[in-house]
Model the fold of this input.
Amino acid sequence: MIQAANSLYSLCHCCLQTPINGKCDQKMEHPERQTEKSQKTPHDASSLKAFLMKCETTGDLNLYDHLTQLLIKVTDERPNNVMDIIEDMSHEIKQSFCLDNERALPKLPETTVADELAEKHRLLFCQTEQEEELVDTPLPNLNEISFYMEQAGVGLGRIEMQRIILALKQLAQSEQLPHCRLWGKILGRENNYIIAEATYREGEEEEEEEEEQKSDEITEEEETNAELEDNEDEMAPLPSVAYNPQPAVPKEDIGTGANKFVYYVCIEPGLPWKKLPTVSPAQINAARQIRKYFTGRLESPIISYPPFPGNEANYLRAQIARISAGTHVSPKGFYQSNEEEDEEEADLPQGSNEVNPDFEGIPGSEMATSLSSWVHHVQHILPQGRCTWLNMVVKKSAHLDEEGENEELEEESEEPEPEVGPPLLTPVSQDAEIFNTPPWTLRLSSSLIPDHAVAVLHSNVWSGAHAYACGKKFENMYIGWGLKYSGEGYSPPLPLPPQDEYPSGLDITEALDPTVEEEVEYRAALEEQEDSQEDIENSDEDDDEDE
Amino acid sequence: MDSGSLHCSLEHVAGSGCNLNIEQRAALQTSLLILKKNYKFQRVLFWGKILGVEEEYFIAQGRGKNEIQTKKNLYSFNCIDWLLLPPITEDMMKAVSVAAKGRFRGDPSYVYEHLESKVSEENRLAVVIHQIDEEASVVPRGAFIRDLRGLVQVNRSFAGLSPSEATRLSNFLHFRKPKNQKKRRILEMADLNPAIDFLDVVSDDVPKGSWSLQLEGAGQVCILRSLLWPGLTLYHVLMTPQHGYIYIGSGMKNLDLPFML
Done:
């Protein structure tokens, strides 16, 4: 169609006998034929008009009508720079002609993604019946939070945020959550995750544990069944495996440590929320070693080295735990530790803190200048993958005694040093540098009106983690790819060295073949020996004879 | 993204998280207009923001008659006073690739050193902006045309991609001088228009999957994010000529990409 428009363009030139520039000449191949025809007829207006009105194509189109329509359109619309867009206008007219014809066959309207989403979004705006007036609303004032976040230069857009607020409200109602907040958003390759953080409601913990136990039992049963079947199939007994895997570090109890909160995830506000499983130390440790983008499908497998135990839902949960532990901060003094009250139970893994009722608020200018006025209020995750260290040696030694191997290991692990992280409410100024980059960047939201500005803290370790503080209010939010800063470049860990097939010893090692020289020497030595022996024997005989 | 429709455009790309606050938006609206007049640009784009550890660089890009060739980049700390970045030379690019490591500091006079090569952060900024423009700046197909004189200009009659077109990466083009024009089969050539398809197609990029294409904003805005330069976002409102790209990030290329897909 555009080529046709181009040729028409040049035809317009030649018919109206305007001077043709050089570039136009090159595109004259097609119209030339027509001009030849027109040369045969006398060059007067009526014959030219007749030529233009000729219908050569199968449709009812002719150039005369088209040009009139085009000129009418130009005079009607009077666009700027008609020269530039005349081809497109001509193209449009031609297309509209085709569309007129098409209308005889009504088209089935296509349903686009936007249509389907609009139906889902409509449900968010439907007013649900208020059952009873709750004293404590489960949701924080998200409009206020998003306003402050916008001051900080962070946000998801006002309209989108409104939808998220409505979706959170829906979640809190349907799941009857006692408290729920917007944790943030993690971008994926195909979809993005909107993440809500909620506290467990009473009684839920037991349900969860029961469910998990059930699922564990099922998998164990399956495994034993599979083993039995294998044994039946094989005639010869399988060689026993000497490899003794380290026992997995147990998960932290629900409501403590890395499993303190429950997380719900949805791809788009209005679509159903999905609950994420609890996180295990093995998953956190594997997540530390890999670097993967999220796809946006919770069920998709994580293909990586070292292998990740679980699917993307587990990976997402592990990253959330790591980000929360690393970047959730609050103004100093907002929380106070409640360890003083129950010193006897200080060893308990209950790393919790309570809101300080006497907190006065720190002025924004001070918050924006000193890192020591910000403190971590989420427990640090230890190298073990748990927030509270668990002594695994008891179990280990029991295993090892049976085998009677790895004595050295046993000796080493007899009295392991407990891993200790920084205590709760440690100022962020004590955080370690990462790849020569300071871990935090402090800013004031406005340089022109600093009196009412908000203090903003951006993390450089987890880029995308932000916190703001204004008076007594503060909030943390993460919006990003869910990846830690990796410095120069990531190199995946190397695979373990291959296991020995058999213990090497004198019985098995093959002797080296002797060289020719060695053989010669050996023979010479042998001969000498024989000679000397003969001598000895001879002398012996002599002695015997003597006796 | 065009300075004229900045507020609206920023709302469309907000899904990536980083954004500008109201004060900065208001300042940009004023200063970019003055910038356009003083430097006699045809068009001024707000290019994006490079996050330094101490300060942030705001970047504006002025464009002349030929949208691809005549580009000038300027930077600012407060969105009001703009400074022109130096033109790029081969030596500068080499020095940056050797010496410049880690995050931007936020101080243009800071000197990166490695062995004998030295490079100032201002030069590094110029080179990184050039690299991002070369590798990750994208436009929807048909948004720009090359006219008879070879000038690349905004296509006035661009009506936007349809919802079905917007789901295919082949409808997005690299906005740079074409580098690897792949030989196409005649069947594929049938739909191509030399006035529009003079740029490289994004779907030919290596490795496959270095772009994330999604529909956001209730399914009406098409968002294209670069995974090679995380922070670069293209938005295009379907069936309208509105489109633009912005970069808000640390200015570091994601070299780990092959491991991460």
Summary: The first helix of chain A runs from residue 2 to 15. Chain A has 16 helices and twelve strands.
